[in-house]
Amino acid sequence: MGNMTNLCIVYCTTDSHDNAQTIATELLAQHLAACVQIVPGMTSVYRWENKVIQDQEHLLLIKTHQHKLAEAEQLVTSLHTYAVPQWIAVPACAASEAYGTWVEQALNIEKRK
User: Fold this and answer.
1) CA-CA distances (angstroms) from residue 88 to 11, 18, 60, 67, 93?
2) Assuming Cys at both sites, which of 3, 42, 99, 103 could form a disulfide with 34, CB separation 3.0 to 4.6 Å?
3) Distance from C-alpha of 96 to C-alpha of 2, rounded to nearest angstrom
4) pLDDT per 10-residue tile (average), the chain, 113 residues
5) Helix, strand or coil for residue 110?
6) What is the dihedral sign for C-alpha 17, 18, 22, 23?
7) Per-residue pLDDT at 110
8) For residues 53 and 33, what is the distance between their CA atoms, to the nearest angstrom?
9) SS3 assignment, position 53
10) What is the pLDDT of residue 113?
């Protein structure tokens, strides 16, 4: 297993499949994500404006590269239906060399030596 610490997964939730699909499509179109998995039917319980809220949400798992994070976050924020979208980027401590190469190619990132 190779050490690909520049890869990361972003956790983002949204309130509808349509919004999730729009975000995923645009991230891919602009080469800001190599893959976006949409996980429907998640129940979120959270505090918002001093109230405990429970909602059904869609989780987006955005596979990207640290060099694309800022631009991807700007795009997601511009397309998102929430005033404060969830944006949590988790670096990959390791990934296979083949997967890392595929992500970099999908994002038009030149291999760094």
Assistant:
1) 5, 21, 11, 15, 16
2) 103
3) 5
4) 75 97 98 97 95 97 96 98 96 91 91 56
5) coil
6) negative
7) 77
8) 30
9) strand
10) 47
